[in-house]
Predict the structure of SCO1664 family protein.
Amino acid sequence: MSPDDAPAELIVPNPLVDPTDRPAVEAMLGRLAGEELRLVGQLVEASNGVFLGVLGGGEPVRVIYKPTRGERPLHDFPPATLAQRETAAFLVSHEGGYAVVPPTVLREGPLGPGSVQLWIDHDEAAAPMVDLVAPDAIEEGVIPVFTGETPTGEQVVVVHRDTEAAARFAAYDCVVNNADRKGSHVLVDPTGREWGIDHGITLHAEPKLRTVLWGWVGDPLPAAEVARLALLESLLGDPGSALVQGLVGLLSSDEIEALTARVSALLAAGTYPEPDPGHYPIPWPPL
């Protein structure tokens, strides 16, 4: 199908939501949860079943639908739990003020229950948060993370930007124990806002952190991150909070307790953590 032949709902800009505007986010969550979901395509390169859908009614909204039945079993995560983790990762982002994850719900869909997330139109021309550069091409404003070698023997360096957004993403990944923060899992929308996607392997009770955002190891957490951690600690300590009420049913009690413990430990340390000994800290591929 050529762009000229594609339905308008697939080529017009998708609606944007300011993640700091709670009424706007709640309105979008209502649409994600309540409107008819029609499948219009599949992301065939994904390791699990990932589908492009369109919500019915009103302004067209494109979404990503990940049905539980399409999940490939993993040796180190409980089976049939990735959709719940996608949704739980959004709740932590939303209630904790991280504004990282697009609005996401767990609902019934054409292929059974699964996560439904607002599609983010990615600006391919935008400067990426994470990049691969030659050793002599490292610019100001980026932090080198590790070096590597291409299949042809060229030396390269994985770098990430030294920005407030990257520091926020790094802190968020520590909180949710993100086992798969690749560079390609950060999208930039047409306004320049960065979003994190693919949070299906997060929030395990055991340490699993694998990320490319290691540039601040041992550095003090910024004041904004300390404030977010304090907010999360307060919410997790309140059984009646929207966060706890939402996480129950998505995660096991052990996983919620581990989340609470990570938040408290980060607050007590006041610094970005170091990689756990004996645990490979980089996802593969990193980009």
Residues 8-118 form one domain. Residues 1-5 have pLDDT under 50 and may be disordered.
